Amino acid sequence: MSKRVEELSKERPAHLTTVKEIILENFMSYEYARIPLRGGLNLIIGPNGAGKSSVLLAISVAFGQAYTERSRKLSDLIRRGKDIARVSLVFDNSSKGGRRPIPYSKSDTFMLSRYLRSDGSYWFEADYREIDKSEVVRLLREFGINPDNLLIIMHQGMIEELGAVTPQERLRLVEEAVGFSEYRQRILQAEQELNGLVGEESSLLQLIDNANQALEYWKQVYDRYQEKRRLVEHRDLLAKELLWSNEAKLRKSLESAEEKIKSKARTLEDLKSQQAEAAADAEQTHKTLLDKQVELRKLYGALIRAEAERAKDESARAVYRGMKDDLDGLSGAVEAASGESAKSAKRLKEVVDYMKGKSSSAEDDAQRRKPDLEREVSSLQQEIGRTDELVTRTMESHVSLRVKSEVLSYRAKLTESDLHDLERSAREYRAELEKMGPELEKAGARMETLRQPYEVSEELKLVSAHIQKMQDVPDDAEKIYNDYSGNIEELKVRLSQLQENKKAMLAELGGRKGVWRNAMEDLVESIDQPYRAVLGAADASGFVKFDEGADVESAGIDLFVGFRGGAPTTLDPFTQSGGERSVALMAFILSLQARIVSPIRAMDEFDIHMDPRNREAMFKMILGQMRQQEASQYLVITPSILTVFDRSAHVITVQAVHGSSEVKELK
After folding, report:
1. Residues of the chain predicted below pLDDT 50
2. What is the tens place of the pLDDT at every residue in 398-446?
3. Torsion of CA 91, 96, 102, 103, to 10 degrees
4. What is the 3-class SS of 28-62, one letter each residue?
5. What are phi and psi of 97, to 5 degrees?
6. Which pLDDT belongs to residue 235?
């Protein structure tokens, strides 16, 4: 590593922290889960749909990440059927070198929580004390954590987004991730200050030029004194005429406003009367509507009872007819009996005949009632139709009257507002007339004029302009000339100082750009070799290039990569395949790990487009990188079955069990 990069590295946060545990409660597919994490590499594995990505999403929610809130509503993250969810991150806050990473917390752990409600509201807590989002952002900034930076937290599918960024955007991501953003800000601040100096210089030059023109003008100001005095007298007369013209205009405006006030008041009174009448009519139709609705419900009840009675008679007739048929059969059997059975049969036949008579009588009664019930049902249906139509008409009349009442009320409000405006205008006219009183008294007798104020004012402006051009009184001209001469000298001194400051600022800006450019070149040089090494493990080649551009804003980082012996070309979304881009981007990310400031980094399914061979190669490189960066904490999520991780990796499995995600720590 170069000396420049080593010096810049000293500006990293000295006291870092890691997440010891993630606690999820009613979050997405998790009912309740405690996910332990360690320093170094944490692998979360499991089948698709088990809830792996939800772990990283939970971290994002706790960090208040903008990506999460743009992508889906917070209420959608709450487990189905629950009203509130909680995500908590337990940080390691144990003392390191006599100082805790989060000094205002005296505990060895620090818990950051975010609560989500189904109504979309949320809040943050720090060690069970409610805080706002700005405190969360400030806390993360102290550790160099920006959850919106793809190089620090990469959600599922974001590997493609990282591959599509421009070289300029890539450079900004890198600057922020490695803690170099301050150098860009210093340059932009210097450029802003320089632009301010340039603008001030331009203003001073313009002021000096204007002062020189004015000085030249006053050197030539010697006009006729008598002409000037006549113009001054005429100006005073015009000023008096303008004063009385304004008074006449204000008085006329006041009289007009008072007339309009009377008219508006009459209109307002009429509108209020009409509105009250319409409101009363609407109230009456509402009562009628309620009465008719009650009557309609009663008719429907009577119809239901009549139809039920008709259905009951119809059912009874069917039963009686069946009973009669059964009794006819029984009667035939009785008549065929003989001997002792004939005596019993005779008695039974009497019973049967009696029952047949009863059945026939009941059936006849039901049949006689049928026409009456049908007439009653028909009559009720007609009455319901008439009443329903009357309800509809009454409803329409009520709505019409309500609308009329509201329209009249709205018109009354507008008229009342107009009335208030007119009254306010009248008060203002009176106040202006009262304010003019002393001036009118001082001006003397009323001056009658037929001219409007603007006409008098235009002539007054013209006369005043002539007077202004004739400031040729020698003493005044000399004083003004000397004043301008002194002002010009002061402006020239200021201009000289400003130009010296501009020169110094240019030198400072050049120095800041040099520091930034050297830092970027050294940084790219420090990551180029690891980038090449990771690509080599995937049978690829390439390099990282820093393009300083015409200025800081146009500078960028270009990635070059070649596969299967091909010459390295610029990485873009069109030249390489998805798997090739993933390999190149992972090589770039891994090459940056030694420089990234944030103690916590995470990525989800970066290997989705990789073939098994490159996937295994990438995981080997990840394991190698993590062993060298034990002070940092890595979270890698993958659905793949891995064969390359060893005991240095902390492995957590996620499974979906009976509709809920469960985690298990592999020892």
Report:
1. 1-14, 69-70, 222-223, 475
2. 899 889 889 989 998 999 899 899 889 988 888 888 888 888 888 788 8
3. 150
4. CCEEEEEEECCCEEEEEECCCCCCHHHHHHHHHHH
5. 65, 30
6. 82
pLDDT score of 2: 43
Residue 611, SS3? coil
Global pTM?
0.56
| Strand ranges, E, within 509-588 | 540-547, 556-563, 569-570
- H or E stretch covering 258: helix 225-335
pLDDT of the residue at 125:
93
Instruction: Give, for 26, the enclosing helix (H) or strand (E).
Output: strand 19-27
**DSSP string for residues in 381-430:** HHHHHHHHHHHHHHHHHHHHHHHHHHHHHHHHHHHHHHHHHHHHHHHHHH
Residue pair 281/401 in contact by the 8 Å Cβ criterion:
yes
Question: Distances from the Cα of 67 to the Cαs of 56, 142, 292, 462, 667, in angstroms?
Answer: 12, 20, 58, 65, 33
234: left (phi > 0), else alpha (psi -120 to 50), else beta? alpha
User: What pLDDT does 578 receive?
Assistant: 84
- Sheet with 153-154, strands from edge to edge, namely 153-154, 600-604, 633-638, 40-45, 650-657, 660-666
Say which DSSP state 302 is in.
H
Give every CB contact of residue 571 below 8 A, 6+ residues apart in sequence.
163, 542, 558, 559, 560, 561, 581, 584, 585
| Residue 241: how many other CB atoms lie within 10 Å | 21
For the record, the structure tokens of 84 come out as 């509130």
375: Cβ–Cβ under 8 A, 6 or more apart, which residues?
none
The answer to whether 515 and 183 are in contact (CB under 8 A) is: yes
318 residue type, one letter = A
- Which uninterrupted H or E stretch holds 634? strand 633-638
What are the CA-CA distances from residue 344 to residues 16, 320, 347, 531 (Å)?
Answer: 110, 25, 5, 115
Residue whose tokens read 């991730």: 177
Residues 6+ apart with CB under 8 A from 165: 150, 173
The C-alpha atoms of residue 123 and residue 194 are separated, in whole angstroms, by 43
Q: What is the pLDDT of residue 339?
A: 53
C-alpha distances in angstroms, 207 versus 13, 215, 518? Answer: 49, 12, 41
Q: Find all residues with CB under 8 Å of 441, minimum gap 6, and list them.
A: none
Strand, helix or coil at 113?
Answer: strand
CA–CA dist 25, 2 (Å, integer): 47
pLDDT tens per residue, range 286-332: 998 898 889 888 888 888 888 888 787 777 767 766 776 666 676 66
